[in-house]
Prior knowledge:
The complex is a heterodimer of chains A (505) and B (189). Chain A is built from 13 helices and 15 strands. By secondary structure, chain A is an alpha+beta fold. In chain A, the strands form three sheets. Chain A has a seven-stranded mixed sheet with strand order 10-9-11-13-14-8-15. Chain A is globular, with a radius of gyration of 24 Å. Chain B has two domains: 1-63; 71-185, no CATH class. In chain B, helix 1 packs antiparallel against helix 2 (48-62), helix 3 (71-93) packs parallel to helix 6 and helix 4 (98-119) packs parallel to helix 7. Chain B is flat. Chain B is an all-alpha fold. Classes of the chains: A alpha+beta (505), B mainly alpha (189). At the A-B interface, strand 3, strand 4, strand 8, helix 13 and strand 15 of A face strand 1, helix 5 and helix 8 of B. Strand 15 (496-499) of chain A pairs parallel with strand 1 of chain B, so a sheet runs across the interface.
Amino acid sequence: MKKTESDFKNYAxxxxxxxxxxxxxxxxxxxxxxxxxxxxxxxxxEDFEKALLYYRSAGLPLSEALKRLDSLNLGGFYAxxxxxxxxxxxxxxxxxMSMKRHQMAVFRLSVYLKEDIVPExxxxxxxxxxKRFPSFAMTVKNGFFxxxxxxxxxxxxxxxxxxxxxxxxxxYASGSxxxxxxxxxxxxxxxxxxxxxxxxxxxxxxxxxxxxYLRLRGYEVECGSGALDINEAPSAGETANEFIxxxxxxxxAEAGPEQKxxxxxxxxxPMSGKLAYHRPCQVIHFELDSFALKAxxxxxxxxxxxxMLALMFIAGKFATEEMKGKIQIQVPVNMRKYYPSxxxxxxxxxxxxxxxxxxxxxxxxxxPEIRRQMQAKASRESMSEMMNSAVRLxxxxxxxxxxxxxxxxxxxxxxxxxxxxxxxxxxxxQISVPPGMEKYVEKFDFVLGTAVTNRAACSMVTFGRIAVLxxxxxxxxxxxxxxxxxxxxxxxxDPQVKxxxxxxx
Amino acid sequence: MDxxxxxxxxxxxxxxxxxxxxxxxxxxxxxxxxxxxxxxxxGGRPWSLIVLWSLWLAWWLIxxxxxxxxRISQTARTLFNxxxxxxxxxxxxxxxWGSFVIPIVCFGTLVLIGVLFLSDLTKQRQNIMPMxxxxxxxxxxxxxxxxxxxxxxxxxxxxxxxxxxxxxxxxGILRKDMLTELKKRFHIK
Lengths: 505, 189
């Protein structure tokens, strides 16, 4: 008999008669909500037993514990067979086609609470939360023409963090998941395969999970500000493929040459440095005072993204040995700001900010050009044009069998897609949390997985007074982050540097 | 620049299998180039085709797919590769046993896949497509045999009837889900 099982048995037997009945009724109701294969059902019931044992050790009365772990929170999710399926959205179609054994488009969002995580309660929080996100409870499958997502009803487990951040997910097995939730000390991290969602959708999931976890801890946390009510039915809009929104009526014939965004582009200068075997080989976080950062950007009449881009161009020049060509930084653009949407699936495109390496000097010299390019390339017209290109491409290829598309996609993504960028800056902006939650949250962070040959990928997120710029590295060469550190220092931002060890070459 | 570590000590990915795959791939690519060159140089039957497909089969076994790697799909794909190999061997050396041996191999695999499917219905009902392909191929095989090529023999009859029986069982068990599965697999959205 397992330890939890025997502990729980002893606990149940020691209860007074009235509570014994209460517990038996609860377990029976719980069991009715879970129609999973035998082992998974047993594991899930054990999760609840562990949570009850935790509450007992915390001195919580059984009635209150049962209220928090109410089986109503499971809804019918685990009691119904998996029948949902959905085609991939237009942005997601490339990811399963281009993935390789150790290379997968994974990103990671983390929330740091002010106290250490209780794994037993985080597990229950995930068990309750996933039902609100049916489009996340899915696995990738091969179709004849395209991949698709197929429902995967199972116990979704939280795990202690033991792997490199953004490690590839094992999506090949029956019922496998395309995301993972891990914890370490006071941090809850959710890592997503990009087929499921983008940063915005992932953040909604993480906030909902964290809010539910805090409720299980006994704190009063409301819903809102991007944290969903787990007992509300998911809406159709949350799983919509929004890329078809501009298809018919918003052709951009009047767009200028810079606004005509497409997927073809010129080759960018790559950062130098030996490519590491481990992906990423290191993750570095620069923690900044968000108020000071905003003030520094404002002093230069720039936005935070533009300011950080300027620093990245300078650091990028420092990190390469090439003397000719352009440094090109990919900047993802959240399409929801142009086309309001509730979708939790991908609805992000990107623009490419380019500066010839010979023109890269100081911040003041770079900012006007960056601002000009951002205004032109991240405009609604330009993004709509790109969205049209994506939709047209998908339409053109729709009748080409997958076994032909896949090798071509791998070639294009590996040799062309990655070569047109030197770096990436994805800024999720200021994160808000539901009322009552801020006092338990210290900060958020956002880490991008590395691409094929790009030596660094930068991502940023701000919560309250803390802005975190994360750099995922694909080379042990420290030139880029060291220059970034110096530039941030020179800008009076005094970053705190945190991160991982160097995982290897 | 001092870094405060906020990530745990990690379990590093073992490199053995990656290195093994890398070295094997180099050897295979070398052999794939060498075999046709030697074959053309020395003349004779195109045995290099057998080498090439065998290399592909061996490579495929040590490098499993990244999407949908389950027992039904693996068995069906292995069968497909083995059948192609048998056809090549039979054609290159003109043995003439292909029309007899291949239906036996297919029949055996179809039975195995049927057992795999029926023994774990809950999980495998989302993985039926490779089995459906195999059933369709087998039924087409027997229809073709009825027309006259390849010649009708008892393994072909066994294969056709097993495929037909399995199709009826699948339709009986899955009913509407079978159509949904086809809709999923052939969607163009």
